[in-house]
């Protein structure tokens, strides 16, 4: 099994699991690989470092790296680096220069927020504008709803003093992932 770091044209980073490099290339050519955030099919493979498991060696913590940097810095007569400065430096060095999109943590937080909204609202489909108006004017029981509205309907709702918010639902949440 190959786990590849992928990125779409919108700079969303994600993992893809494939049986082999040939499987990835075949699926990519057939248009089967798409971003789980935006469904963009212009996906590229990003460079990644393999993880080699040698058993007994434990990974070094940021404190160990900081201590090593401080020791090296003090022996060469340069002021020691604080852990916060080192962390900032390390993140600057390890960031891919072309990566300007949301971080993996930001993407995960967004997906969790959208999942929460989907789980705690009623889908009224294309009846959204009518249902929102009915609740606003007291003709229907207030509840949390979601659905589709045209841009014109959304503007009209806002002009009537009805709070609405556009929420893009990523393709990955519209159907079950395999």
Order of helices and strands: EEHEHHHEHEHH
The gross shape turns out to be elongated
Number of strands: 5
Beta-strand percentage? 5-15%
Mind summarizing the main beta sheet? 3 strands, antiparallel
Sheet with most strands: strand arrangement: 2-1-3
Q: Percent helix among the residues?
A: 40-55%
Gist of the model:
By secondary structure, the protein is α+β, with helices and mostly antiparallel strands.
Q: Could you walk me through the main structural features you see in this protein, from its secondary elements to its overall organization?
A:
The longest helix is centred in the middle third of the chain and has 16 residues, at 104-119. The protein has 178 residues and is an alpha+beta fold. The two termini are 16 Å apart. It has helices at 21-29, 62-75, 83-94, 104-119, 128-136, 151-159, 171-174, and strands at 2-7, 13-18, 44-45, 122-125, 145-147. It is built from 7 helices and 5 strands. The protein has a 3-stranded antiparallel sheet with strand order 2-1-3. It has a two-stranded parallel ribbon with strand order 4-5.
Could you name the key traits of this structure?
three-stranded antiparallel sheet, alpha+beta, 178 residues, 41% helix, elongated, two-stranded parallel sheet
